[in-house]
Design brief:
Oligomer: single chain
CATH class: Alpha Beta
Strand content: 5-15%
Strand order of the largest sheet: 3-2-1-4-5-6-7
Helix content: 40-55%
Number of helices: 8
CATH topology: Rossmann fold
Number of strands: 7
Length: about 250
């Protein structure tokens, strides 16, 4: 029986690969058979991970706010593995300040990475897929905060909401070229960055809103990512796949 979750022969690039989610995504895609580029602003931060994965992995420098850096990264991937036909737009930042304290620098920084960067990266990758005439897959990493809000992250929620709409727009316009575009929307997932916060008062309060009464782990995103990335999800485009233990459908 055909393994519809196999990514053998695919060439993937994961942005923000030095973070907890990005690191996990690269391992998942690699284990499924893809050659993987671990992209980060500081390539030395992912060099050890790439080396551990072996010949089908490489570290690549990438600043998704800079079109020239995006082009150079995709050129490097093509030189090593061939056309990148699987992009995971994972890079993201947040500014944690109340709305009245949010300044323009906060707004511009978050929008520059989380929304403008995803647009620039997706556009350049898609242009190359179209030119090659072989189609491909783009997975944008959104958040349940595209639909819900918590105090103190106005620019982040706005950016993720915009990313969900961008995903839908891309899906409609790129379908004719055989390119599928979907979004993965995690809830609160424990990583090294937020582990302490989720173990504290904020986490205890938030846990009460999650019907499953637990936060997610990176392993909870394995199946959903593979579904969107592989032929298992071949009839999915413009979808937003939520993985949050029921958080987004629970009462506030």
């Amino acid at each position: 029986m055909e393994d519809v979750f196999s990514l053998k022969g695919r060439v993937a690039l994961v942005t923000g690969a030095s973070g907890g989610l990005g690191r996990h995504f690269t391992r998942v895609l690699h284990a499924a058979g893809a050659s993987v580029a671990l992209a980060a602003r500081r390539p030395e931060s992912v060099a050890e991970d790439a080396a551990a994965l072996g010949e089908r992995a490489m570290a690549v420098a990438l600043d998704i706010t800079q079109p020239a850096s995006i082009a150079a990264a995709l050129d490097a991937v093509e030189a090593r593995f061939g056309l990148c036909d699987l992009l995971v737009n994972n890079a993201g930042i947040a500014a944690t300040r109340r709305f009245l304290d949010h300044d323009v620098a906060d707004w511009d920084a978050v929008m520059g990475v989380d929304l403008r960067g995803a647009f620039l990266m997706g556009q350049e990758a898609a242009r190359r897929m179209v030119a090659a005439g072989k189609g491909g897959v783009i997975v944008n990493i959104a958040s349940i905060l595209a639909e819900r809000v918590v105090p103190g992250v106005a620019s982040y929620t706005a950016a993720k909401g915009g990313l969900v709409q961008l995903t839908r727009q891309m899906a409609v316009e790129l379908a004719r070229y055989g390119i599928r575009v979907n979004a993965l929307a995690p809830g609160y997932v424990v990583t090294d960055i937020n582990r302490e916060a989720l173990a504290g008062e904020f986490g205890r309060a938030m846990m009460k809103r999650v019907p499953q009464r637990r936060f997610g782990t990176v392993e909870d995103l394995t199946g959903p990512l593979l579904l969107l990335a592989s032929e298992a999800g071949r009839h999915m485009t413009g979808s937003v796949l939520t993985v949050d233990g029921g958080h987004s459908v629970a009462a506030l």
